[in-house]
Each structure stands twice: as structure tokens, then as C-alpha cells.
Amino acid sequence: MAEFRRDPLLGNWVVTGFTKTKSNAAGVCPFCPGNEEMTPPAIREIRDRQGRWLLRCFPAANPVFQVEGGADKRAEGFYDKMGTLGADELIVENVSHTKTMSAFEPSEVSLVVEMYTERIIDLKRDERFKYVLVSKNHGEITGSFIFHPHSHVLATPIVPQQVSQELANSRDHYLLKERCLLCDVVSQEVRQGKRVVTLTDHFVVLCPFASRVAFEVWILPRRHTAAFESWGYRAIQEEFVEVFLDTMKRIERVAASYSIAIHTSPNLTKDGLTEENVAVTDYFHWHLEILPRDVNSSRFKREDQFYTVFTAPEEAAILLRAKNPRRLP
């Protein structure tokens, strides 16, 4: 059985023993209209006036995480492990198989953002989940083998490693200066202007100072907001849709493959406070990251931030101890 295992050296969690299944219908897109029976039943659909679906959200057919049960935390000696509690969902963003995000109409992007918002809010109602990550991988270099536009939604009892580091650095900055770290970043970038791509009343698009890949961009709210799903005013959400669509048009001119991840605040504790008695909403600032990919950057891990290992280390050790270990497929 698959399980979470904690790396005691790095502190991150790895899914071990996951068994991947293959589709039997080669060459048939399970996300296209008319092939709905090839996917699990929808959790949520947005339909037009004629009753035809425009977007669909459903559980992954071969989920890494299981929504039933509990975390089942346990030890093996001093090692920590637990069950793969979580939610593993897919959002089919459009009926068109070939449309990329840059070709979406504003109304279509608006529906995508609406679905992202709904799923984050719904999954955060489950107190077993500490984090909800929405991500999108476009292009084979990112590991996405279905071209049809879609996104992933993962809810887990663990905060992904990158977000956990962002939380720690943001908390440390706030405790030292009583200011939000990304608010300071936004303030300096807007003031300097040399890394800003787009600037509107409520959002800034910028190439981060220490970009990990060429043409990496972040979209950040200019005013402090901890949660992506907390829009406040419809006009702000509509402005984000315009900014996001404009950014995707720019990105798709320079990259055929890319990863997108929404870094929203974690699922808050009952009182919303950390151990230093500081509210997460005070120091965490949501943002959306877009990382173009090419053959030189494909070594970077996908934005779901969880390594998934198909061969458990116990089995791997047995195979490697053999006189003639088999080759990897």
C-alpha cells in the first residue's frame, strides 16, 4: 500500500509504494465531451443554459491520495510515516481539446478561476487537510501527457515543502520587522520597476529577483491578502482574470511548456495562530507562480511538491542486492 514517509534529513514527505495504472483506451482523450464515462463521476460541473458542461471537476481515476479514513500516523523505529490521506482531483478547464490558456476568452478564464476558488473553499472545510494546492502542468516536459487543458487539485494533511519554507521565511520576516515579506517585495519591485511586467490597481506581475528558470513570473495582489479564494469584491476577481489571461498570452509566446501553482494560505488552526501567537493571515501573502519549462529546466520537480516513488525502498534494496538486478523499464 502507498504511504507517506518523512525524510528525517530534509523534513519533506514522500509518497512510497504508489501503483500507477495505465489507460486501456490509447489515443482517446478521456476529457473530451462524449467520453465522460471514462472518468469518475463529477464532483462539480459548470454548465451552459442548454445543459452542456463547460468545466468539470472529478476525482483522479488513480488517485495518489485517499479521502477516506484518517492520517493513521505511526512510527517505524524513529522514522515517521502515515497513510496517504487527501484529495486528488482534476479540473477539465474547457470543452476544447486543443485550446491553450492564452486562447481562452475572458469569460472562460473567469469560470476556471471560479472553479479553483470553489474547490479550495470546499476542501478547506475538511479540518483533516492542512493544505490545498491548485496546479497546472502544460506540455510533455512538465509530465503532462494529456494535451486537453486541465488542472490538478491536491488536498493533504501536510503543507508542501516549498510552501512550508515560504511560511517559515514569511513568519521570520514578520517577527523581525512586523511587516509582510511579500508586501515588502511588492513595494520594492513597484518602486524600482525593472522587473515588473504588468501593473494594475490591484495586481503586479513580476519576474522574481532570484528566478529559478528563465521567464518565471509571479502574479501578486498589491494589497495584503493571505488567501487566493478570498476575493472580497467581484471587480478584483475580474481584474485578476484580465491580468492572468494577459500574462498567459505573454508566457505562451516564449514557452511551449510551463507549470502554474497557486500558493494560498494553509488551512488555519482553530484560532489561526502559530506557536509565536502570530496569525498566519498577518504574514502570508498569496501569489500565483508560472514557471516556463524547457529541456534545461525539466530537472525541476513538478509543482505538486510531492515525490511519488513507484518502487518501495525495501523492494529496491532486494532487487539491487540481487546478482543481476533488472533494468528500470
Written overview of the protein:
The protein is an alpha+beta fold. The chain has one domain (3-321): HIT family, subunit A (2-Layer Sandwich). It has 6 helices and 15 strands. The protein has helices spanning 106-124, 161-177, 181-192, 234-254, 280-283, 313-321; strands at 3-6, 13-16, 44-47, 53-59, 74-76, 79-83, 87-92, 131-138, 150-156, 196-199, 203-206, 217-221, 257-263, 287-293, 308-309. The strands form 2 sheets. It has a 10-stranded antiparallel sheet with strand order 3-4-7-9-8-13-14-12-11-10, sandwiched between helices. A 5-stranded mixed sheet has the order 5-6-1-2-15, with no helix packed on it. A hairpin with a 2-residue loop joins strand 5 (74-76) and strand 6 (79-83). Helix 1 (106-124) crosses helix 4. The longest helix has 21 residues, at 234-254. Mean pLDDT is 87; it is low at 298-304.
